[in-house]
Amino acid sequence: MSLSHELGCMNLHVDRYPYTGADECGMPLLLIHGWGMHGGMWGNVTEKLAQYFQVLALDLPGHGRSADTAHFDLDSVVDCLSAQFREPLTVCGWSLGGQVALRWAMRYPQQVQGLILVASTPSFVRREGWNHAMSAELLQEFAAALQQNYALTLKRFLALQLRGSEQEREILAVLRQALFSRGEPDLNALQGGLAILLECDLRSALSSIMQPALIIAGELDALAPWQASQYMSQQMPNAELVKIKGAAHAPFLSHAEEFVKHTVRFSHG
Predict the structure, then answer these.
(1) Any idea which residues carry the catalytic annotation?
(2) How far apart are CA 162 and CA 196, in angstroms?
(3) How far apart are CA 77 and CA 73, in angstroms?
């Protein structure tokens, strides 16, 4: 079942997967998707996680069933999440969603009791002293291509995310089918998300994030190389790294059982 929240800042849609486990209640686990995607892109892993958690999968502003927004920037998105989810929860962010989760943990540490960062990085583009990333030129090409045909651009981005992964063709087919199942994302939100990927550099703030963190990296990830995840695990005081062999940028799909196992172990102790 689903729920849409009307907010002063924007309208966020959330899919809720009720806890199906045997204990009295499951801890809340919020899933934040990556650039150009939506909450439905988590696939069947949501039902697997619901055996252990109250699972919430949101659509970021201008994506899926959430309202369009003229201003898609990191702090605005985090402020809106903070206003909507007031009770402490564990936040699981994939790719761009990982940067949203990190920023949320920095700005409102009392709300984020744990972090799970999947195929994410403090900086998606190469900078001085930072080579574990994409070239800025590649993302700028995607930004330019959005103006011409953003449906095709998103499909190309999907293919790049899964390149080299085990079950690459099967998972790519599933993601392409799901990509526009909730309509096409808002162009302003897509451009704002790419601006975050190009400009955001959270490296200097990592040491201040005190929450327990599980960092899950795909061994073959070309967008967020596992060395970037290793760096985060070394800089964050209470973080651990899991590298999944044979996975690229979507380990929760290519290696769902392994992803769930590590998530449950981390959250339940």
Answers:
(1) 95, 221, 249
(2) 21
(3) 6
